[in-house]
Amino acid sequence: MMPRPNWRLGGPPLPEFELQPTLIGKLLQLRPLRPEDFDALFQAASDPLIWEQHPESDRYSRDVFQKYFDGALESGGAFAISDRKSGRVIGSSRYWNFDSRAREVEVGWTFLEREFWGGAYNRELKNLMLDHAFRFVDRVLFVVGENNLRSQKALEKIGARFLSKVKKPDRYGTMQTNLVFAITAGAWTAQRKKRHLR
């Protein structure tokens, strides 16, 4: 989906949301996903335990992952995430459904190799993506599977709040329940200050 025209009533045009910047932290680098990243990203995704709470729990298989990868490229907002120390691709995430009128964007389709779960790596990933997003929007949405308790807890830790339940079709067309979480620019700023003061 292409970004919608970037305007708001009664005000100047907003800056255009750059959906695939290169974002660099101390531990991670995020750069636009490219077709030639398939093998490295599939290697990172091939651990079944990464997907055990995910609605698409067989995404570690090549055919299923190929559909995820193709969708990521088509989205125009997907990243390859690399460990800066080794240079190795260790996961992916993306921006999706940017709405300039509502001033919101979705962050999702995120995974990291298990050795990078929790702690500093996941925190830096969220910092990089949310800091960038809040230059352009007032709210960031996350859609997670109803049974994905790990992701739900991680979102609550960064200050995201449950918003609603939605039904979305899986790849077989079966409707699955997902939970929508949201975090506002103000809540994110407060969370960042709180962490900084610790």
Describe this structure in words.
With 198 residues, this protein is an alpha+beta fold. The chain has a single domain, classed as Aminopeptidase. Helices cover 30% and strands 30% of the residues. The protein has five helices and eight strands. An eight-stranded mixed β-sheet has the order 1-2-3-4-5-6-8-7, sandwiched between helices. Mean pLDDT is 89; it is low at 1-11.
Question: What is the topology?
Answer:
Layout: E1 23-24, E2 28-32, H1 38-45, H2 62-75, E3 78-83, E4 89-99, E5 104-112, H3 119-133, E6 139-145, H4 149-157, E7 161-169, E8 175-184, H5 185-197
Parallel strand pairs: 5-6
Antiparallel strand pairs: 1-2, 2-3, 3-4, 4-5, 6-8, 7-8
Question: What's the short version?
Answer:
The chain is built from 5 helices and 8 strands; from the N terminus they run ββααβββαβαββα. The chain has 198 residues and is an alpha+beta fold.
CATH superfamily label? Gcn5-related N-acetyltransferase (GNAT)
User: Which structural class do the helices and strands define?
Assistant: alpha+beta
The count of strands amounts to 8
Overall pLDDT confidence? 89
CATH C-level class is: Alpha Beta
- Determine Rg (CA atoms, Å): 16 Å
CATH hierarchy: architecture: 3-Layer(aba) Sandwich
What's the order of the H and E elements? Answer: EEHHEEEHEHEEH
Helix content: 25-40%
Strand content: 25-35%
Q: Number of helix segments? A: 5
